[in-house]
Amino acid sequence: MNIQLTALHYVYLAFIVLIIAVMIRRRDTTIICVAGIMTIGLLATETLSGSVAGIFSSFIYATKELLSTIFIISIIVAMSRVLIRTGINGVMVTPVTRFIRSPQVAYWGIGLIMMVVSLFFWPSPAVALVGAVLLPVAVRVGLPPIGAAIAMNLFGHGIALSGDYIIQGAPKLTADAAGIPVTSVMTASIPLVIVMGTVSTLTAFWMLRKEMKSGSPVHSPNVISGTLSSEPSSSSEAVSTSLPANQPVQRQAMSPRLQKAFALLIPLLFAVDVILMFILKLQGGDATALIGGTAVVILIGVTLAAHRHAGPEETTNYLIEGFQFGFKVFGPVIPIAAFFYLGDAAITELFINPLPEGSHGIVNDLGVALAGLVPLNDTVGAITMTVTGAVTGMDGSGFSGISLVGSIASMFAGSADSAPVLTALGQVAAIWVGGGTLIPWALIPAAAICGVNPFELARRNLKPVLLGLTVTTIVAIFLI
After folding, report:
1. pTM to 2 decimals?
2. pLDDT at 34
3. Spatial distance between the Cα atoms of 420 and 232, rounded to a whole number of angstroms
4. Range of the structural domain that residue 86 is part of
């Protein structure tokens, strides 16, 4: 499989390195991403006007791709806002606090629940379900919002999605590309997923606990006020996920009887959603849509009960607040997402035939080129599969490059027994990097629900995930 790399590939790779370096230094990458988009546009169109127009077009493309996530986050935030103001949220989570009494239990409890829900319905809808109910409890017992976001990310978008044992979308893609049975990939992935999950979650927990014990404030830059403030968020701010810093929660009077009624009804409605997802086999966007629609119904019902005659106007106000929060959070993410989407399908949609014949997209071409630079043996193949999977995951999808990963795994496999292990390893690497643990715009659902900065969350996930990938690769070498 020979792919001719062009100037577009090398420029894209150079900007990836530059963006990663800037992110590690915790500086804003918007200008660099825009410069990257403009440079790629100039190479693709060979005109300055096409290059400049490509900036806006890429922003529109990224917004379309992220729109469903923006909407579900905005609606959940709007619903959470009215539940907090009416006191329903406090009544609803009181029974859960009997079991979650420490930050340690909160971290592992949220993580395990997130993993189980994500196995059946994928992480995006699971974040909305788990975060809306358990985040206030976790914060109340002392787990920082960033800790809850880390747990949801690593257990949901990491462990559950990389194995995907129930829905089986990921193993089917990789197995078909590698020309081996799906069951063989799933079986081979079990020890790899266990090792990856154990190392990453334990490392993240150890780092979080060490920081909490040291007495230093565990926080992330404040995304609520729209600035990268170094001030830690208060508990009430973290729970509401939409309150400006230092602004007290405004309470809306509601009778205790109504509070208890809604506190019972709301979890029941979400439980019905879970049952319907299972019966109707709703996944991904369909499952997210069901949860989003339910959240809107809850928002309207609670608002009308609390505000009565002013209910219609207040419903609109809550929705406005939710969408303001959603677009404020996604504002800094759209430029960087726009750049990385150019590594996949966006470049052929925005620019006319800029890539050579036989190209599978810039990112996938780079993955194939990397595979062609190393010798064909199992040990080097395992390392290459991890790196290739990670590279193909950098577009923030996690799934877009795993078919390529399966194809490359079949090339490196020295025997029939090693093919499933290499395929599973590439799948795990691609999804852990691109599925929502390291790429900022891919982990926005958890970051937004928890009210933390997605770039800070990606930075905190970096060491645990890289250590996990290293150990998992070593284990894979011994399994081959």
Report:
1. 0.68
2. 93
3. 46
4. 69-166+198-330
